[in-house]
Amino acid sequence: MILTPDNEYCVVLDACVLMPMPLCDTLLRLAEEPAHFCIAWSDQILSEVRRGLESPKFGHSPEQVGRRIRAMLSAFPESLCTVPPGLIEGILGLPDQDDRHVVALAIHAGANTIVTNNVRDFPAEALLPHNLSALSADQFLVHQYHLSPQLMLEKVDRQAAGIRKQRGDILLLLENLAPIFCQLCARREPSS
């Protein structure tokens, strides 16, 4: 279980950013060393990922989903957090009460940011009392790019190499999910 040291930036990855494989892969590669942040998720978030990936929208088999979640847990065992009973019920001000567990996790893990493509479900006025913010995956990736453009490009290039592709291929896969980030990366020359 992660309890973030005072000097480490921590993000909660919402289920919606963990389902599309290219985006999930990019975010998780960025959390590998060297990284500017650590990640947190819960059993509840991973259950949402499982249901989403097995839905007709994604169409993965239970076996495929099981392998993917086991790989995520194996690569980041310290990221799994259990939210204490009662904390979820204390979260107020969200448009969808079913999202309270995400905010409770962020509080418990000492996170700074919730990375979600449903930013409107996490209004600033509800997060501010908890010293939290919500960023879309695109906004988060743009911030990470500005912190270390070369490191970001190296990680995207490694992601591409992992599937025997080029940086441009990964950017095409991410284009609808993180358009501004993709524009930033496309302006830079591929590494040789």
Question: Would you write up a description of this structure?
Answer:
The protein has ten helices and five strands. With 192 residues, the chain is of the alpha/beta class. The protein has two domains: 10-141, 3-Layer(aba) Sandwich (Rossmann fold); 148-186, no CATH class. The protein has a five-stranded parallel beta sheet. Helix 7 runs parallel beside helix 10 (179-186), helix 8 crosses helix 9 (167-174) and helix 9 (167-174) packs antiparallel against helix 10. The longest helix is centred in the middle third of the chain and has 14 residues, at 62-75. It starts with 9 loop residues before the first strand and ends in a 6-residue tail after the last helix. The mean pLDDT is 92.
User: How much strand content do the residues show?
Assistant: 5-15%
Rounded to an integer in angstroms, the radius of gyration calculated over CA atoms is 16 Å
- The tally of strands reads 5
Mean pLDDT: 92
What's the total helix number?
10
Low-confidence stretches: none
**Class derived from helix and strand content:** alpha/beta
* The number of domains: 2
Q: Which superfamily, in CATH terms, is the homologous superfamily of the largest domain?
A: 5'-nuclease
Describe the biggest sheet? Answer: 5 strands, parallel
Measured as a percent range, the helix fraction is 40-55%
- CATH fold description of the largest domain: Rossmann fold
The CATH class of the largest domain turns out to be Alpha Beta
| Broad shape | globular
